[in-house]
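Q&A log
Question type: sequence-to-structure
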Amino acid sequence: MKFNIIYLIILFLFLISCSKDIELNLPEPNKKYVVEGYIENGCHPVIAITRNTSYFDPIDSAYLMNLFVLNAKVYISDGDIEAECHLSMDNLLKGVWPYIYYTTDQIIGEINKIYYIQIIIDSDTITGKDTMPNIVCLDSLWCEPIKDNDTLRELWISLTDPPEKNFYRFFTKRLLRDQAYIPSGLFVLDDVYFSNQYFKVFLMRGFENIYSDSTYRDQEFGKYKIGDTVVVKTANMTRQHYNFWRTAEQEIYIGTSPFINPVRIKHTVDGGLGVFGCYATSYDTIIIY
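Response status: OK
Response body:
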């Protein structure tokens, strides 16, 4: 027995002595620019431009701010008017993403118009275009109780899908609590299963930071508190716009799993990464009961 113990100790020390640290020199990603741009009916465009970054770079507020591109020439056209955009930092004061973006007062979103963007950064040019579809309004929205919970409710919505092809994205904003409209959790919809039909669905409350532990410790996670006033924004969009957000959400929510193949995001701009798209939006308000 004594010999076995000594043997195990020697073996353990030998294994420790054989170990060594391995340093990996990961290549830096090729420089690319990332666009997150959209225009809604009745609103001015919002076009944010950032630089891509290494997956393993540490992220803090200063690093994030340095990713924004501030020297771009940005143009948007509706086929009749072309306007050069200027930088806006309005969202920076509110703490709302995107903190810095390009916009113009000369272009306002209109139904069935085609919008074109051109972005020039030094020797790089990025282009994109999208069409503003028709507005689709909700039929109704209501609350459903949660078992053994007297303070929170689920929010449900219903609508009748029009005959033409439609793709939906939903946002919510709790008045006096949320600074901006937040996309509903895991929620872009293709009408392939309910085309030209009535349908209803549970609208999960979205969250601003899916990587924060505090998000999942929130007692109101995915639900709504009785007494809150909630505005629901229903956004109809084109197939290409939908495909970007569908693949982007898949990558965000499940792409980090080592057991799932990476998702190929379907970018809608040429010459860079990201998206430019149109939202045809309608708004409905409910007091959670």
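Response note: The radius of gyration is 24 Å.
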